[in-house]
Amino acid sequence: MANKVFNLRINREICQGTGYCVRISPELFELEDSTQAKVLVAEPPAEFEEEILEASTLCPTRAITY
Amino acid sequence: METIRDLIPPPHIQGIKHFIDYALVDEILRSKDFRQGSHQESQPFFGDSLLTIDHDVHFERRRLQAPLFRKEALEYYEHEELLPLIDKALEECKGNRDETGTVRTDLCALVRTMLARISAVTTGIDGVDTPERTDAFRTYIEQLGTGATVEWSTEDHSEVISRILKIREGFVQEFYGPSVERRKKLIEQFRNGDLGEDELPRDLLTLMYLHWNEEWDEELPLREATLYLVASSQTTTHAVPHLMIHLHEWFQEHPEDYEKRFDRDFLKQAGHEDIRLHLPSPALLRIALKDVTLSNGTEIKKDERVACLFTPANRDKTVFGDNARSFNPYRETPNVKPWGFAFGGGEHTCIGRTLVTGLSARTDNDEGTDGTLVNIAAALYKAGIEIDPLDLPSYTELSHHDAYGRFPILLTNL
Hints:
The complex is a heterodimer.
Chain A (H helix, E strand, L loop, with lengths): L8 E2 L9 H5 L4 E5 L2 E4 L9 H10 L5 E2 L1
Antiparallel strand pairs in A: 1-4, 2-3
Chain B lengths: L16 E3 L2 H9 L3 E3 L6 H4 L8 H11 L5 H23 L9 E4 H17 L7 H18 L8 H35 L12 H7 L9 H34 L10 H14 L5 E6 L3 E2 L5 E2 L4 E5 H4 L3 H4 L32 H5 L13 H12 L2 E3 L6 E2 L8 E3 L1 E4 L3
Parallel strand pairs in B: 1-7
Antiparallel strand pairs in B: 2-4, 3-11, 4-7, 5-6, 8-11, 9-10
Helix pairs in contact in B: 4-5, 4-14, 5-6, 5-9, 6-7, 6-9, 7-8, 8-9, 9-10, 9-14, 10-14
């Protein structure tokens, strides 16, 4: 697990820009405009696991994969 | 029989601005300049639940409940709860086989029975175990659903509210109250160090009492539980009968596809198309927080209520093609979700959507889940479902919803 690296992606076709991911982890996500979020760190290290899982679950459209 | 009907706006949404274009509905749902405007009459059942709160409060409540919908939790519900419960419900039908081995039953009731226990598990209701208790619980959910969607009822609304509140007392006494008491005791044991956190039930009621917020009123967990119970069974119960009729017609017109009735990818696409056409919540109201001008120039005044009509929006030809009003399991929707607004949109997108549609793979190494719709449809085809040719289904007369009230079926392969 220590060496685990994620492949963080947002499906832009279904992202609705609620910004929930940014609230969970501003280090990993950013709101590009009012309708889209974007990934700031494409391959975050294992220490971000909990934030990634929470952001992925909390996203209303489940647009985040990892 | 007409299987695709237009939405006739019920009285509670007449006289206000209606939006029927996909793009405008999407714009309103995404906008932070509106708040929830639905469920005004049904406040006694849904008031202050996740469905009716907005913005920061909504985010915090959703965050509290999100662990129930993690990938691992969804996999657990599907494999450990849903699949055995589908089998169990069909097994119980065997007792009603006639001399030819055929079972005659009602699809709406059968699907509700299949979903009753998974609703109980995610919500935190104990004692939904024997067929008799499951039947009683299922009936309570149906009744609570009538109260929670009273705006759509064709009966006298105030009479419905008082009747269902009375019925809710029975539900509290028989199921909800004992379940809450058991959870409170477990939480107390956890706080005293006599129980580990991982030994606590993983359900809505436990989460709410474990993370109690002093701003909540004592009855809020009951209303939140009502939302979970009604929503978690309503969408699938609503969708499966429509899906069975559409696939029946599709297989008649495309006999070469009949062998695909066991193909989960085909059923998944068909299910998405089905709920696009037949939405469990056909309209949603929003209230403007300030004066708003939409991208097409429409002006909405502060505090004005507007109605987003999902049924016509989900049949918008500019998004879903010229044949948008028809059922096509091969429809491609490259830029939008295949179910459109079936689960709402924006921050109010239904938190339990993945229970119904399944969760697509989160990583390159997992397969995701199929959801209730595919699993139930596959099990029904395996059981040899046929629409009863001598007793055709009929729509409910108790609601303006696009829902079947009776759906007699034959199960020929149990």
